[in-house]
């Protein structure tokens, strides 16, 4: 028993040193990607904007200014007013909070479900793999936006519903990636060695397999946040997401649709923010993918 424990500790120490070395190399590769750095800085600014919205926003996003309906940008109101006379800049700032809450929380839900399903399917195989793989394939066969619309309509539109509905419908891509990685990892020598010294399935999955599949999951999640923000904006645009008067980029874009010829700034402001945010997450995700790619060499 003591010999087995010593061997397991030696394997763990070796794995830890290898991970530290690879992390250092990955950070150097990431820093060399200037566009990824730009995307990361923009994401940090978005997070600060969402956290400090109460202090950054110049006006109350729900306050209606009489006689200012659809008025264009000015020095005091850089983005102008929306179709009912609310300050558009303040609503865009508060809309950042909604976008990031939906993007990050829904991604977290999807990651937890997808990693659990993919790891179980790939590690245990047999009927477990067949059942979970068919479930994953079935979910991916549905048109995602149509499925979201149906679920949101049935459960009722709200911020919580939007987060949960998106989270429980986009996990299939994580499950598929994790399953493929686990299928190759479980045949590796270090997994065989862990089995030989008597490590339990739970320990093998938690200590040896999951740390080695996190890199592609993190990259996929980073790229997926932008897609989730688009999905939230689409649901809000259709009236099935965040409900008025809560500020939301998608809802504001929907408000500006009816007045696109009279007050184009109403639709332009949230539209530009959606584009820039999605682009930032995509650039950041591309940088992570290149940095964490084991085929890359310094």
Task: List the keywords.
298 residues, mainly alpha, MetI-like fold, 12 helices
Brief rundown of the structure:
The chain is mainly alpha-helical and 298 residues long.
Can you tell me about this structure?
The chain is mostly helical. It has a single domain (7-59, 81-292), classed as MetI-like fold, CATH 1.10.3720.10. Helix content is 75%, strand content 0%. The protein contains twelve helices and no strands. It is elongated and about 75 Å long.
How many helical elements?
Answer: 12
Q: Order of SSEs, N→C?
A: HHHHHHHHHHHH
Query: Helicity range of the residues?
Result: over 70%
Arithmetic mean of pLDDT: 84
What fraction strand? under 5%
DSSP strand tally: 0
Present the secondary structure layout.
Blueprint: H1 2-31, H2 34-51, H3 53-56, H4 88-124, H5 126-141, H6 144-155, H7 159-167, H8 172-185, H9 189-196, H10 201-237, H11 249-257, H12 264-292
